[in-house]
Write a structure and sequence with these properties.
Helix content is 27%, strand content 33%. The protein is of the alpha+beta class. The termini are far apart. The chain binds zinc ion.
């Protein structure tokens, strides 16, 4: 396993459509292990292969039980509702935006041995599924956000919301 460098949004790798994974071999297993190690080190909620420069359809998402779920060739097969909330990205450090996502999603993907399975997510996990799958088509959350906020602005907004809630 190896810690990989997370590319930032100026890198062309983040704006390309990734190819499906066709070989479920040691090379893929190394990639998945590296994604997990790099995600854990960055303390993020999800990471997609193009973020470490590999243009293949593979992502890792932290689920509601705090486990890292490996999704290879993931497809959105159902979605429900709508949520609006702040979103960030390890490839867009220190910037946050308000993004609309479905509140529940169902995804079909393959595991590292090529076995198909379905996974469901709601709330933050649904947001994360959508965000990571978008990376595989070369898209970033910033394309859906009206404006981007800095860490300081986000802290201030959160404080204001907390104060409102206390009243
Ligand atoms: Zn991202």
């Amino acid at each position: 396993m190896a810690l990989r460098t997370i590319l930032t949004d100026s890198d062309p790798a983040l704006h390309k459509v990734c190819r499906p994974v066709t070989q479920f071999d040691q090379r893929l297993w190394d990639l998945m292990d590296d994604l997990k190690e790099t995600l854990a080190d960055a303390n993020g909620a999800g990471l997609a292969a193009p973020q470490i420069g590999i243009l293949r359809r593979a992502v890792v998402v932290v689920d509601a039980q705090d486990r890292m779920l490996e999704l290879i060739n993931p497809e959105l097969i159902a979605q429900e509702g709508e949520q609006e909330g702040f979103e960030g990205c390890l490839s867009v450090p220190g910037r946050w935006g308000v993004v609309k996502r479905p509140s529940r999603v169902k995804v079909r993907a393959q595991d590292r041995n090529g076995i198909f399975f379905e996974a469901e997510g709601e709330g933050i996990v649904a947001r994360c599924f959508c965000h990571e799958m978008e990376h595989l088509d070369g898209h970033l959350f910033t394309e859906h956000a009206d404006r981007l906020y800095t860490n300081e602005e986000l802290d201030k907004l959160m404080e204001q919301q907390e104060n409102k809630g206390a009243r």
